[in-house]
Every structure is written in structure tokens, then in C-alpha cells.
């Protein structure tokens, strides 16, 4: 069975452009304090959907409707109280055997009862997917929605999680380490694309996604965002750019499922592309590339991409 990009993102995938000054804190008397202060009073944040999110005190228990939440919490040494994406159980993240509660239900239609049973202080979801759950979730705990547009947003979100959970030092160390890794990248002249979908219904990560913006740091990535950060393209449009390297995300189930590259191989236009002719269509970890979107996940993206672009 082949999944759509939207369904794959449910395995998936998000983040928010947090900038300095976007969050404010407020102590119990109502006096404003600097964002990220160490007080234990209330604070109000504005999430990526533009909603004000009020927190009554320190955040210790977080339920994750999106994988970027799990990713950031693992970076600062915290286990979520609940998860939605099965990728959370991968050894590279929380791993199996934890006491996290699984949040069941369809993508954007998650079972709020599962969230409630985890007794969270805060729930983190994906803007554009979980907006409709806000009223129900906020009967349980505040809901913070995120929406990633770049790898820098992923780093900013990590720092925000550190502020909210009192793990600023851990978050800062992980953030600086990732920023330094990106700064140390040696740019190449190779043109590349991260793509997904089906023949006749293809999409690419534009430069306004964490993966696309990251690949733009190490190679030529001529995929500007259109109305949607994940742009729909045809084989002919990809062939017109003629990428040197294609990173293919195959969303399918079953051990005998055919790869995206395999499904495209019979297309004569595809076969003429440089990446296809030189056997540089690389099947990558679709779960990580599509749904992780935090600094752990983006580090794994670099692990796969850099050898292909700099080797």
C-alpha cells in the first residue's frame, strides 16, 4: 500500500519559526519578565498558528502530537508522556520499552482521551493539522502548534523547549553543536532535490522546509516555495532542473513495496536525467526526512546526504 504525503506526514512532520522576543513571560503578579526567565510563574506564548498559549507554571509533562516535539525533548533528556508517531520508538529517539502512552486516531483526528490519560502540562502539535483539536485538547492542557520553515526554526524550537522545561543548558549545547555542524559544511556545486510521492503526483521539499533549507547549505537547491512549502512537481519539471543527486522518500508499507526510484525508472524523461543516468537517485529514510524535523532528525539527514554530495 502506498501512502500519500499527507499520510506520511502523520508518521510525520513540523516546526516553528521562533525568534527572539516572540515569547513573553509573566510572573504571578502580572509583571512581565524576560522571555525564558527562570521564574516559576505563569507565562504566555504565541504559537505558530497565532494563538496565545498560557502556561500556569513550569512544564514537566509534554504530550507530543508531532515528531519535532519528541525530537526536541530527547535532545534535552526528557521523555514525552505521550507520542503519536511510531518513529518515537526508534532507538535513535526514545526507543522501545518506555512508559509513554500512545496517542491513537487518524492524523489530525487524534484521540483526545489518550492525551488526557497522559496528564500533560502541555501538548505540542502541528499547525495546519491539529488546529481543529484545540478546543478539545485545551480542556486537558494548553496546546502549542508549531510549523517549521527552515532548519534554523528547528534550532529555535529546541531552545524554546529548553526554556519551557528548565533545560536551557542542555538545549543550548545541542543547538550550538548543530549550528556548528552546519557551519562546517563544505558547499558543493551539485544540484539536488528531496522528493516524494508517485509518478504523476510528485512533490519536493522546497527551501522553506527544514530539509530543503538544510540541503541548500551543502548544495545547489533551486526549489523555491510556492503556495505550499511542499511543492507539487512533474517529472518534466524535475528533468528541466536536471539534478545531479535525487534523495527519494518512499512512503509505502510491506517488504516488497517498490521504491519511488523504481516506480519512476520506466519513465523515459526520468531516465534521461543526470541523477538517473549516473545512478545517483538515493533512497533515504522517509520517516526521518519527512516527519522528524528536529535537530536529531536533521543530523540524520546530513548523515545520509553529505556523503552523496561531498564524497
Automatic annotation (TrEMBL):
TM helices/strands, residue ranges: none
Main location class: other
Entry-linked Pfam families: Peripla_BP_2 (PF01497)
Signal peptide: 1-20
Keywords in alphabetical order: Signal, Transport
Protein location: Cell envelope
Stored PROSITE patterns: FE_B12_PBP, PROKAR_LIPOPROTEIN
Domain named Fe/B12 periplasmic-binding: residues: 61-311
Family per record: Belongs to the bacterial solute-binding protein 8 family.
Protein name: ABC transporter substrate-binding protein
Species in which this protein is naturally found: Nocardioides hwasunensis
